[in-house]
Amino acid sequence: MSKWMGLVFWSVVCLGIIAQFALSLFFFYNWAGLDVLSYIGWAVWVPSMILGWMPIFIFRRKARVRKGESYTHTTVLVDSGIYAVVRHPQYLAMILLSLALILISQHWLVMVIGFVAMVSVYIAMREEDGRLIEKFGDDYKRYMESVPRANFLVGFIRLLRRRNRV
Predict the structure, then answer these.
(1) Spatial CA neighbour of 79 closest among 95, 102, 55
(2) Is the CB of residue 92 less than 8 Å from the CB of residue 51?
(3) What is the pTM of this model?
(4) CB 101 within 8 A of CB 21
(5) Does domain 3-165 have CATH number 1.20.120?
């Protein structure tokens, strides 16, 4: 994906999530009146926020980001902490945020926007894997074999198994 296409893509995804946020919380909050779904949505929101912010601090500390550069400009492959569980915690956070907003609002328009956002973020995750293979080579391929892209449950189980073998 070219730089401009990437910018357009992420602009659309971000606008979609912002629209979903505004519609969910200000116009269609608990539209269907299913309080349990709304509560589950808020419960999903919390891990999405944690997964969204964690990489900023982890990369600053472990990824040898040059001073003055964005935290995304890593110079080493980080495979510990949350990155030992899932390869793309921030992408997973965006997917969980969209799901949370769908559950909070329970409105068809938010569901459509959220579904498009989630599919778009998943596609971006796959493209990011390709970019990281180019950047880190065989180390990243080995990392991909042991850590799932975004499945937190599978990643946690694999992490426990790896630790029990040692």
Answers:
(1) 55
(2) yes
(3) 0.83
(4) yes
(5) yes
